[in-house]
Amino acid sequence: RMEGEGSYTLPTGTEYRGTLRDGMFDGEGELLFPNGGRYRAVWHRGVPTQGKYTFADGLEYKDKKWHYCDGYDRRFYTEICSGLKPADISQLTNLDPPKKIPEGCYDCGDGFYNPETRVIVDYKLRFLRNADDDEHEWIIRACRKAWDETIQHKPKP
């Protein structure tokens, strides 16, 4: 079994770097995710006892008093760090300029979603997962799509 300091890459591409004991994460270590995020934690027998997640852009997640992109402050983290753009220039995602969405697809945050195949691929077009009905509905309703569509106000009958 793995023992001591080292690294281990999971089949998903996530890498663990830190202390291993009896084949499990144990002690200080971090998970490095393919999307650039990282989770640093103190582990005990494979379970994190305390830890901190940092997104790829440097934003640190807080489980209490989380105010990022809430109802009062809708700025992206890059806007918080670098300021807002002029009034007539929109910033559509935290990444500016945003990734180009393949034709017929949606940007669902961790990759692109094709509603025809119901497959989500990462931004390098590698398979991530198949969307279930709930995720499909959420993406169609809430996510940025590759095409422009004129929406007209429809008065209530």
Automatic annotation (TrEMBL):
InterPro entries in alphabetical order: MORN (IPR003409), Morn5 (IPR042814)
Record's subcellular location: Cell projection, Cilium, Flagellum
Residues making up the signal peptide according to the UniProt record: none
Keyword Repeat: yes
Pfam families assigned to the protein according to its UniProt record, in alphabetical order: MORN
GO CC, alphabetical: motile cilium
Keyword entries, A-Z: Cell projection, Cilium, Flagellum, Repeat
Coiled-coil regions listed in the entry: none
Protein name from the UniProt record: MORN repeat-containing protein 5
Organism: Mesembrinibis cayennensis
Lineage: Eukaryota, Metazoa, Chordata, Craniata, Vertebrata
